[in-house]
Amino acid sequence: MAKIKIGLVQSSCSNNIDNNIERAIEGIRKAASEGAQIVCLQELFTSLYFCDVENYDNFKIAETIPGPTTDKLSKIAAELQVVIVASLFEKRAKGLYHNTTAILDADGTYLGKYRKMHIPDDPAYYEKFYFTPGDLGYKVFQTKYAKIGVLICWDQWYPEASRITALLGSEILFYPTAIGWASTQDEETNIEQYNAWQTIQRSHAIANGVHTVSVNRVGYEQNGAMKFWGGSFVSNPFGTILKQASHENEEVMVVEIETEKSDSYRIHWPFLRDRRIDSYSPITKRFIDED
Is residue 127 part of a domain? Predict the structure, then answer.
């Protein structure tokens, strides 16, 4: 299918998990009512962004995948005939947890999961305390409507991740995200950070000739210390922003894309053709020291 409608559910979260899930389902329903065929939710949409603190009680939020939330979303996917991209806190085994996205096909079938590969550790983003780095590698999923690739938040800064996912045949790159500004930060820095975030993902679209879809949460958390900046967007394969959400409001956006455009962009700007794969072995080094 060349033309596909993509739904993005940008929302704020509370400490009520059941309510967060129900509100996400409302967003999926709204997107589907506007014709969306693939709907992406934001990173860790069932809860507040708990990685702002190192608190052992937060491990109680985790669940198995497949599990109760994917079972619930599977029914919604089948009912609405939409693909759902759902980011969850996965309990893999006792003491072993991942930041994981599950993919549910339009008939409700659970297609599999992607585990976040790059795990940050910054002030208010203490993800290494909670998450083991992904060990499934980069993944693509053949859904009813398109072959999609999923990466998660911090993954979006790494061109290697998007390149490999594109080389696996992904027609669209999805990035469930949770990123924001410190409330005390000046507006100039805010703008610079958001522009960097958007630019790096638009560059993945250009370098790989695919659409990118980034879905971020919005609103104040951490008792007002962090404002998640929203700004969810869809980029075409040449980095053009097709639609962008606000920095302030909860929004459900539906954007029509044409996956067949990848062929045209890749023909006229043949980055994949001209790759010198014989010269890239140094990329596997941490740093190339002079000696």
Answer: yes
